[in-house]
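Hi support team,

I'm opening this ticket because the web form for multi-chain structure prediction keeps timing out on my end. I have pasted the exact lines I submitted so you can reproduce it. The total is 588 residues across two entries, so I didn't expect it to be a heavy job. Is there a limit I'm missing, or should I split the entries? Thanks in advance, R.K.
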Amino acid sequence: MVDLSIEMGSLRLKNPVLVASGTYGWGQEYRRLLDPDLLGGLITKAVTLHPREGNPPPRIVETSCGLLNSIGLANVGVEAFIREKLPFLQSVKTAVIVNVAGSTLEEYVEVVNRLEEHSGIDALEINISCPNVKEGGMIFGCDPQSACRLLSAVRKVTQRFLIAKLSPNVTDIATIAHSAVDAGMEAISLINTLVGMAIDVNTGRPRLSTVTGGLSGPAIKPVALAMVWKVAQKVSLPVIGVGGIMTTEDAMEFLLAGACAVQVGTANFVNPQAPLRIIEGLEEVCSRRGLRSIRELVGQVEAADG
Amino acid sequence: MSREGFRLKNNEGSPVIQQKAPVITKEEIAAGVFLVGVKSPQITMHAQPGQFLHVRVGQGPEPLLRRPLSIFQVDRKRGVLSLLFRVAGKGTNLLSRRRLGEDLDLVGPLGQGFDVPSGTRTALIVAGGLGVAPLFFLAQDLVRRGISIHFLMGARCQDQLLCRDQLQALSSHLQVSTDDGSDGFPGLVTQLLEEFLRRENLDSGSTLICSAGPEAMLAKVASLACQFGIPGQISMERNMACGLGACLGCVVLCRSRERVQTYRRVCVDGPVFRLEEVVFGE
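Hello R.K., no limit was hit. The queue was backed up. Here is the completed structure from your submission:
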């Protein structure tokens, strides 16, 4: 029997496969196709203080081995989240991680505050990396000082396990990761989507209403892997790898590069069974290699330090 | 059944199935238009007119996403359903080249289909081009339920008037139009609809317009229905990612009964919407 469980400080996961924010709604959308209790954890769509309608369509466009999106943090707002979405999440037997976003520092803090008294939330993932909103989002994640200021402010108001979700759209991701450490984060998720663009040559217009969007899917996997490896080398916090993971082999690459856990995102759209296939695949690989625990794979890439 | 009742039932109760189903028939019924039959007794059993399947067209990462395709017809006895599509890009091209006996990875049935109120005696079905795809199943279902149908179908030219013989067999009230005048009424199907509405004095309480096709056509259908006071439902199309209501990628601008504008998801709130719900020309 292989032990698939993972411990990141006080956060314990039954297996290292989570589903990524924005690709899994509020968890209940997939429940007729996959038992959520089997997942290592479930990360919600970003929650903001007020409801957000999101960006005008078109919001998605397929690109080579990838998907460009510009949803714009559309969500019901924290109060409706608590009232309408949280009860289902409280009923699942897996780790529930709420992704938190905002336009201002005060909004992030207020969302975290309002969630404080509610049970059934195992961790918060602070989203300082959304590329599709004019205010907030990625702006906080692109500068080490503002990232540190925002994350520290959130840290002050909660004892909950805190994860910072970082943007790849920066010059040096390790610098931002250091800010997350300084601000008292307990783990780091990377990467969010890469800023991208597509043009319809027949009309001469961009394919997304917001001109640029965030690229996800297999196309970004090598970029994500390199960033995970780099940050895992330089920072003492656990890293959760995300970006184009479709298969067991993809997930193994991230674990070998130093990620303690992974998030499956765009793959859920292609095959809703993907997270389950990866969990089964990881177990099989471990048992074939005679490993007692999945933790024996983490960081085992044979490469000189970056 | 009320629309709300149906929605609740569909969201909470009816199953969504993911399975591999073999292609058992394939026919190019017009230039670049394919009718593909797949054997899936489970999905066939639950499918309702206006619902769709999310189909994985290939196997690798390119093209990445599934393609939402309307359920064209079901044969519950044989457990077979068919999909009608035009080759318009990489995904549909790949799908058109799948061979008999090969498995297609399907998720469905998905979405809210047509919800024909119990007092409906006459349905006016308006199809533009490939819009016939979700409407054929509906027409069959209505005929079976004893509702009288008038089918208006428009296309660019004669060869693109799809499934004409089958529709003729289903309803004696079939009228066609072509943009180039090569068959039937020369002009747009919405002009045909307007003439029809002027000529016939339809009872708004027992008549329903059901339509699918290009968005400009649907906008015109909506304005005509409003002008003549006939209720209706239309099937919308959007690029989709999850197909399950999670990603919010496929939204259309809608107005509520209180006239508040809000984005709604084609995959779970639609694809069939009430005519007056959709805000066109955003």
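A quick check on our side: Residues 6-297 of chain A form a domain with the TIM Barrel fold (CATH 3.20.20.70). Let us know if the file doesn't open in your viewer.
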